[in-house]
Design goal:
The structure is a single chain. 38% of the residues lie in helices and 14% in strands. With 382 residues, the chain is α/β, with parallel strands linked by helices. The strands form 3 sheets. It has a 7-stranded mixed beta sheet with strand order 2-8-7-6-5-3-4, sandwiched between helices. α2 runs parallel beside α8 and α5 runs parallel beside α6. The radius of gyration is 21 Å and the shape is globular. The protein binds pyridoxal-5'-phosphate. Pyridoxal-5'-phosphate binds next to α3. It catalyses: (sulfur carrier)-H + L-cysteine = (sulfur carrier)-SH + L-alanine.
C-alpha cells in the first residue's frame, strides 16, 4: 500500500531536509554536540555558540532581542510557563486571567489548573468567525486582570486574531499580553513590537523543525517576571533549567531562518493549492466550510460533509492523512470544542475534517486527494 497523502501539516510538519542536515551536524563526536553549559572546554563553547546563533535566528523572525528567547520543550511548555509562571509571580498584583474557550488545550488546561490554585479566569467566547473582538475583551478587563492569553492563529480553523487591536486593549489596562503563536510562525507576520506582544509561545515542529523543542519570548521589562516551573541548574536565566538540546535548538533555529526567507512564498503557493482543492470539490452538494476565509490563513481548510458519518468518512479516506478537529483529541468521538465554540451545530461538527497543507504539498497530491474525497462522499451517500 502506498503511503497516504499527508494533509495534516497543522498537527505537525515533516522536518525540512535542510533542517535535518543541520541537526545531524550536532549529534555525533565529529560534530558540535557538547553541553552548551560546559564552560571549561572548547567543545562546550562551540555548542554555546550554536545555541546562541539559533536564539538569534528565532528572535529575528519575530523582531525580538535574542536575550528575550527562553528555550522550552515546545509550545505546550511555553504556554505553561507563560500562564503559571506569570500568574504565580504576580499574585500580589491581582489574580485575574482572561483567555478564550477555543484556545489550544495547552492554554485551556493550564488556565483550569490555575483556577484550581485559586486564580480567577474569564473565558471569552469567540464570534462565529472564530475571532475575539477587542470590544468583548475590553468588557472583560478588570482592575485585577494581570494577564490576557489569546492565540494568534487557531489550530483547527486557521482564523487569525487581530493581535494589534487586542494588545491595545490589554495595555490600556496595564495588563500583560501572552500569545500562543504555534500555528502562526511562517504563516503570518509576527513582529512582537508592532503587535505589542509581551509573551509569545513558539514551537519547532509546526514550521518544519523538530518536535520536542520550542521557546517562550519574554519581553525584557521590569513588569514581566516569571516564576520557573522547572528547577535545576539555573539555565535560561533561571526561567527554565535543564541541559539545552543542542541539535534540537540548532534545528529550530534553521527552521525559523527558512521561515523568515521562504514563509511568504510558501503561503502564496499553498493558497493556490487550497483554491485548487476547494475548486475540485465545488460542484458537490452539502459541503460546508467551517472557517470564515476572510480572516484565516490559507493552509488550514476545515470542512463538514452532509449526509455522511464522520467516522465512516475517515475510514473511507484512508489514502489521505487528515485530522478530525484537533489531532490531540482524535481518540475522542466528541465533536470539536472549537467548532462547537463558534456555533457549528453538533451534527455538522461531527463530520468535520481539517485538511492542512504545507511546504511539500504538490498539485498532484491535491488532485489525488480531491478524487478520493469525491469517491468516498459519493459512495457513502449512495
Ligand atoms: C495553537 C497550538 N498551541 C500549542 C500547541 C502545542 O505545541 P507543542 O506540540 O510544541 O507542545 C499546538 C500544537 O498542537 C498548537 O497548535
Amino acid at each position: 500500500m502506498n503511503a497516504p497523502i499527508y494533509l495534516d501539516y497543522a498537527a505537525t510538519t515533516p522536518v525540512d531536509p535542510r533542517v535535518a542536515e543541520v541537526m545531524a551536524r550536532h549529534l555525533t563526536l565529529d560534530g558540535i554536540f557538547a553541553n552548551p553549559a560546559s564552560r571549561s572546554h572548547m567543545p562546550g563553547w562551540q555548542a554555546e555558540q550554536v545555541v546562541e546563533g539559533a536564539r538569534r535566528q528565532v528572535a529575528d523572525l519575530i523582531g525580538a532581542d535574542p536575550r528575550e528567547i527562553v528555550w522550552t520543550s515546545g509550545a505546550t511548555e511555553a504556554d505553561n510557563l507563560a500562564l503559571i509562571g506569570f500568574m504565580r509571580a504576580n499574585r500580589a498584583r491581582g489574580g485575574h486571567l482572561i483567555t478564550s474557550t477555543i484556545e489550544h488545550k495547552a492554554v485551556i488546561d493550564t488556565a483550569r489548573a490555575l483556577e484550581a490554585e485559586g486564580f480567577e479566569v474569564t473565558w471569552l467566547e469567540p464570534g462565529h468567525d472564530g475571532r475575539i473582538t477587542p470590544a468583548h475583551l475590553a468588557a472583560a478587563m478588570r482592575d485585577d486582570t494581570v494577564l490576557v492569553s489569546l492565540m494568534a492563529v487557531n489550530n483547527e480553523l486557521g482564523t487569525i486574531n487581530d493581535l494589534a487591536a487586542l494588545s491595545a486593549v490589554v495595555h490600556a489596562r496595564d495588563a500583560i499580553f501572552h500569545v500562543d503563536a504555534a500555528q502562526a510562525v511562517g504563516r503570518i507576520p509576527l513582529d512582537v513590537i508592532d503587535l505589542g506582544i509581551d509573551l509569545m509561545s513558539l514551537s519547532g515542529h509546526k514550521v518544519y523543525g523538530p518536535k520536542g523543542v520550542g521557546a517562550l519570548y519574554v519581553k525584557r521589562s521590569p513588569d514581566i517576571r516569571l516564576e520557573a516551573l522547572i528547577h535545576g541548574g539555573g539555565h535560561e536565566r533561571g526561567m527554565r533549567s535543564g541541559t539545552l538540546p543542542t541539535h534540537q535548538i540548532a534545528g529550530m533555529g534553521e527552521a525559523f531562518a527558512l521561515a523568515e526567507r521562504e514563509g511568504e512564498a510558501d503561503q502564496a503557493r499553498i493558497a493556490a493549492l487550497a483554491e485548487r482543492f476547494l475548486a475540485g470539490l465545488d460542484d458537490l452538494e452539502g459541503i460546508h466550510r467551517n472557517t470564515d476565509v476572510t480572516v484565516a490563513v490559507p493552509n488550514i481548510v476545515n470542512l463538514s460533509f452532509d449526509g455522511v458519518d464522520g467516522e465512516s468518512l475517515l475510514m473511507a479516506l484512508r489514502g489521505i492523512a487528515v485530522s478530525t478537529g484537533s489531532a490531540c483529541n482524535s481518540a475522542s468521538v466528541e465533536p470539536s470544542y472549537v467548532l462547537r465554540g463558534i456555533g457549528v451545530p453538533r451534527s455538522r461538527a461531527l463530520t468535520a475534517l481539517r485538511f492542512s497543507f504545507g511546504r511539500f504539498t504538490t498539485e498532484a497530491e491535491i488532485d489525488a486527494a480531491v478524487a478520493e474525497i469525491r469517491h468516498a462522499i459519493t459512495t457513502l451517500r449512495g
